[in-house]
Every structure is written in C-alpha cells, then in structure tokens.
Amino acid sequence: MSDAAYQAKYLSMARLLWDCSQGNPRDIPGDYAEHLSHTYADNDISLVSTIDRFEFAETLEPEEWDEAVELLSKVSEDDWPFIEDITSINAEELLHIYDEDATDFEDFVEDNLGTAEKIEKGLAAVIQSVLGEPVDNIRGASGGYPNSANNFLQRPDGTFAGSFTHQKHKFNFEIFPDENGWTVTYRLDAATLDGLPPLHNEDRPEDDDKKKNQTKSIRNRSW
Which domain holds residue 160? Predict the structure, then answer.
C-alpha cells in the first residue's frame, strides 16, 4: 500500500475496530490490528497496529481516540526502540504528552486553522495537477471550509469530496486513494451547468416548423 493510501485509510479502520471492541481495545484481535502496520518510504513506521495494547482507553472520547491513533501513525524507530517488545501503551499518557505541546486554547485554535488551510491548499494542488490550471474556494458539500465538523472533507472510506471554483465555474470533485496512489475526478456543478449558454447551434432548429415540434433535450457537458 502506498503512503498516501495508508494515510487515507488507517484512521477509519482504527475507528471501526474500536467501535467493534465497544471501547475496550484489548478486545481487538491482534491479527486485525496487525493489518494497520506500515513502513513509509522515508523509513518511518506506523504503530497504529499496537492499538490492541492500549491501556486506560475505555474512557476516551472519540476525538481523543483519534488523537492517540494519529500520534502513532508516523513515528521514527529511533524514538521507539524495541518495538517488538511493546506490551502496552498508556493512551492517557500519550495524550498528555501531546497536550504539553499545546500551551493554551489559542494554540489549539491556531493549529486547527492551520490544518484547514493546509488541507485546502493540498486538495487545490492535487486538483491543479490534473486540471492544469489554478483552482480556489475548496469547500464541503454544505459550502463550509474544511474543518473538524466535516472531517476536513474526508469521508470514512478515505475519499475527499467537495467543490472548487475555476474561472467562476463551480465544480464538484472527489479524490480517492487506489493501488496507484490517488485518483481525481471532477465535473461541473448542476447549477453552473444550467447557467451556461447553449452550445453552438444547440436548440436552434432550421425552420419554424421544426421549432414548433422540437422539444428541448437535456444537455450534458464535461470539462
């Protein structure tokens, strides 16, 4: 699995295993957790496969579980010696170490805003690499910016979906991981398509008799 595909999928898979264990990670079968192991191209590794060894995780809120998993999603082996000998990971202490890095609420907000901006720029760059021209206004289905409420435009299966603007036209897009990395699809938004002028010679019959008998056909247009 490519690094990009793993990054898109590991969190939703970890959530599913946590839900199935009813909040008790020790009930997650080790064989299932092992499927979440990964070695990155830069030789960093993922320790998400150790979620079945989490301790003090029963009281975690869903967002705290996500934070704990994300902290283990890409680490250096130098920081985790004797990985094969890990028997337990204190989830509360793991989150406490993370909390020490954020001194106050303003830092948290700043980080959250930074994440939204990074996601927006990243998705725009991916779309531009396929479209070949600049895009802007990356938004969710409800028109909102990428944020924690819409999971930064990512669906449970790892697909990013939303809309963008190009030359004042609105497009809907999907970016999803596959065995080759990422696939990008986009199409004109229905409202934008309806507002475009007719194509050349479209809806213009040759004479009045044909015009009376002709019904307007549905237009399809791709970009």
Answer: 112-195
